Each structure stands twice: as C-alpha cells, then as structure tokens.
Amino acid sequence: MNCQKCLNQNCFIKYCSPKWLALISERKSFLTCSKNQYLFYEGQPVTGAYLIFKGEFKIVSTSRNGRQHIVRLAKQGQILGHRGYGDEFYPIGAISLVNSQVCFIDNNSLTEMFMHNAAVSYHMMRFYADELRKSELRAKAFAQMKTAEKIIYAIIYTAETFGLNEEKFIQHPLSRIEFAEIVGTNAEQVSRTLRMLKQKGLISLKGRKIGIPDIEVLKAEIKDYHWH
Amino acid sequence: MNCQKCLNQNCFIKYCSPKWLALISERKSFLTCSKNQYLFYEGQPVTGAYLIFKGEFKIVSTSRNGRQHIVRLAKQGQILGHRGYGDEFYPIGAISLVNSQVCFIDNNSLTEMFMHNAAVSYHMMRFYADELRKSELRAKAFAQMKTAEKIIYAIIYTAETFGLNEEKFIQHPLSRIEFAEIVGTNAEQVSRTLRMLKQKGLISLKGRKIGIPDIEVLKAEIKDYHWH
DNA sequence: CGTGCTTTTGAATAGTATCAAGGCCGGTGG
DNA sequence: CCACCGGCCTTGATACTATTCAAAAGCACG
Question: Which residue of B has its CA nearest to A72?
C-alpha cells in the first residue's frame, strides 16, 4: 500500500511534494479495524491522524452522565483524529461500523510535513474551515429545530454520507439508538417520528432499514433552516 | 496603523515573514463600524477577512423563517469572515455590539500570503482545528442539554468572552432576546430561567445586567456535559 | 412625559422524555 | 428443528418541559 499509487482521491497527502509523498508513504502505518471496534478512545493521548482507506466510522463523544453523542459519520477517504491535532488528548473517539482499513501518520511526521508543504497546510486549513462552517450550520439547525425535524436531518445526513442502494434504502442502516445519539433524544422518539414520516409517505421501513423514495421531498420538510 | 507596530497580540499576521508583514500592512484597509451596524452580510460575496482591532461583534445566521441565531461572539484580536474563506458567499453576517475598528485584508492578498508563509497557514489551520473542536463540543452540549442548561451555558460563554466588571457584572450585557438567539429559545424562557437562577443564588440581576458572584458554581450546574 | 421597546408574569397549549409492557428477530444451545 | 434468551423496536400512558399568546410593568430616549 504506497501513497504514490493510492487511488484514494480525497486523501490530503496527494498535495505533498513528491519527495514528501515518498517519505510519508514510508513512515505511515496501515491498520485494520473490525466492526464495532474503537480505533482510538476519547481522552487517549494524541499520537497522530488516521485516514480511512476503506470502511465506515462513527465519531463519538461521551458526557459525564454516560450519554453518548455521535459527532459525525465518516467513510472512505476521510480523515479521523484531526480534531485532536495540536492537543494533548483526543476530544472524541472513533468506532468502526464495518470492517475497515486505515492509514496512520504520527504527529511528528505530520507537523514536519505541514511546515515544509505550504500547499498541504493550506489545503488542510480550507478543509477545517469547511468542517467548521458545516458544524456551525448544524449547531444552528439543532438550536432551532424540534426533535422530529432533527431526526429528519439525521436521516438525510446518514443517507448522504453512506448513500442509498439500488432499492433506495440507506446503506448500512444505523440503529434507532444511534439515530437518537446523533440527535440528542431517545429511541422511542426516533421510532415515533419514523412512523409519522412513513404515514406521510416520506420514507418506507423494512425492519430497521429506511427507504427514501425522494430525498428532495424529505429535505423540503426542513427547508426553513439553512442547514447546508 | 501599521502591522509592524500593532499591539494586537492575537493577530495571525505576526506569523508572517517581515517582508510579507510589510506588504500586508500596506495592502490592508482600516474600517470603523458604529454600534449595531453590519460589518458584512450573510449571502454577500466573500471579499476577504476582517480582524477586530478594537470592539465587539456578534456573528449571526438567519433561517428562512426569519429566526436569527447567534453563532458566536467576538472581541478585540479575533478574526471575522474566515468562515467564508474558500467560498463564494459569506455563510454568516457580523454585527457590531459597540463602536468598533477593524482591519480588512482582501482575498488575493490572503491567498498569496498563505501560499508563501507555511507558518501562517499552519497557525491558521490550528486555529480552525481549535474552533472546530469548540463548535462540536457546543453542538454536543446543545443536543443533550435542556433549555435552562443551555441558558446557563450562554451566560458563562458571554461572561468569558466579554469579561466581568469590578462588581462582577457581565460587561456589555446582551438583551434577553440575544441570549435566546444563542440558545434557540425565546425571551420569556430566558427571563424565567434567570429568575430561577437568581432564586438559587447563582446570579444577581440589576436591570438587564447579570452579575455572577462565582462562575465556578455556575459551571458546576452543567458539569455533566463536557462542554470545554 | 409620552412612545415604543424590552422584560416579566401567568395561563393555555403543544411537544418531549420517561416509564412500562409487549412484540419482533436473530442467535444459541438443547 | 425448536424453544429460549436478550437485544432492539414499537406503542401507549403519564409526567414533565417548553412554546405560544396575552397582558401588564418597566425602561430608555427623544
């Protein structure tokens, strides 16, 4: 698995100079992570950043009362652990949703590489800026939406992150509890909202799987909040 | 007002090489902005970034239904408009809370400067990473907290941003409506919560001014949510 | 010293969380 | 193969929380 030949289009490493690309390729390590396993824990010392070569993860943050919150869903090509960059400890944890493969680059290599490749720093800066904008739009939406609307948001977010299969069902459906952990509610409320959406003809249900005949109609339900 | 002699400690410009510092100093412009005035609007084309030389701002985002949300409060030394960097239009607007003075750097100068000064890009990247972490912690807290708890959060946030005067009252008190716009509720609920907090002895009230005898006691009220 | 705005308060209503019970489903072991 | 178990999902009842509406009081400013 070397970086020069990696087909991963989104990986920021490709902005390196050829010399640094070779160096990073040599220094990085390659990890596998089976389903439902922690890639790194909240509170663990920051050792570097992870790039998803193949797989899906949820990024979680736990409150002192034990409630877990899903901060973000991530798939192939995305970076994990960058939130900790510059910190001592990871503010969040990452859990694989399926069997996954991940590249790891240690902190020293990252910092050196950033300092010698303005284009990479610049690209990462824009990546963070974009993430920040999305995070703040979500924060606004969550401050203003009712629970049912936030659940619609979570369905759209999941559908757009993991995609739909040929029958228009969300790939890798999350559990009701996981939806609740995105929104900050409980499984009962998710269940009730799904039933309501099904009755309105906005979604279909097959076991825990959620089908979306027309995602634009679903988006129209929460159009009043500028959330993207 | 030249950058070489500017006393503003937090300004990221100081990470430039001396040559670029001189160049930016020449190219930047200096603006004044009176109280309750828009520095830039939501949806306006992105022309550059702003640095608060002196003053206080609220950063707002409006939903299609007209509800306004306060994304962030900013004071002297902080950067504004950076959320739009790389975009076509500002996703948010900035309104001055007091008479203010601001430096403005156009987009082209910024981009050139970033590409020639890896240290600045790097510093900005870390700034964004930090903002992102804070934004996500706030998003989690808001997903899990009840309204009253979010109001406590807003009080602490305002107190820490603008500081307390010698009588332990928040400098530049926001209106009830502005607190509501941080939290995503209404003025009535803010008023009720303040009364409740006063009765518990956690705050004091004098007109619209909020006094905080011991901010640590206030923080203890929401300690179960890892929000900082 | 009005006028218009914000703030406070109460009452009615709507929305949400919590508790409890039963159903469904997949996996395990007899 | 089937009974059983444990987890997740669904549903209803109830208690709690928050929003909305309305009205009065307070305050700032011309």
Answer: B136
Chain A CA closest to residue B147: A143
Read off φ and ψ for residue A60, nearest 5 degrees. Answer: -120, 155
Separation between the CA of A32 and the C1’ of C25 (whole angstroms): 30
Q: Is the pLDDT of residue A153 over 90?
A: yes
Q: What is the pLDDT of residues A163-213, one digit of tens each?
A: 999 999 999 889 999 999 999 999 999 999 999 999 999 999 998 999 999
CA–CA separation, A36 and A53 (whole Å): 17
Instruction: Out of B64, B115, B132, name the one closest to residue A118 (CB).
Output: B115
Binning pLDDT at 50, 70 and 90, where does residue A215 land? very high
Nucleotide C25 C1' to residue A175 CA (A): 14
A119 CB neighbours in chain B (<8 A) are 115
Angle between helices A147-162 and A187-199 (to 10 degrees): 80
Domain with CATH 1.10.10.10 in chain B: 144-220
Which CATH architecture does the domain made up of B3-132 adopt? Sandwich (2.60)
Query: Mind telling me how many Å the CA of B167 is from chain A's nearest CA?
Result: 32
Q: Which fold has domain B144-220?
A: Arc Repressor Mutant, subunit A (1.10.10)
- How many contacts does A have with B, using Cβ atoms within 8 A? 147
Percent of chain B topping pLDDT 90: 76
Between the CA of residue A210 and those of A205, A228, B143, B194, what are the distances in Å? 5, 22, 23, 42
Q: Which residue of A has its CA nearest to B133?
A: A83
Q: What is the pLDDT of residues B164-204, one digit of tens each?
A: 999 999 998 899 999 999 999 999 999 999 999 999 999 99
Which among B87, B168, B74, B177 is positioned nearest to B127, based on CA atoms? B74
Residue B66 burial (C-beta neighbours within 10 Å; 0-12, 13-18, 19+): exposed
Nucleotide nearest to B178 (CA to C1'): C6
- Model confidence at A83, pLDDT cuts 50, 70, 90, reads confident
Mean pLDDT of A118-146: 91
CATH 2.60.120.10 in chain A is located at 3-132
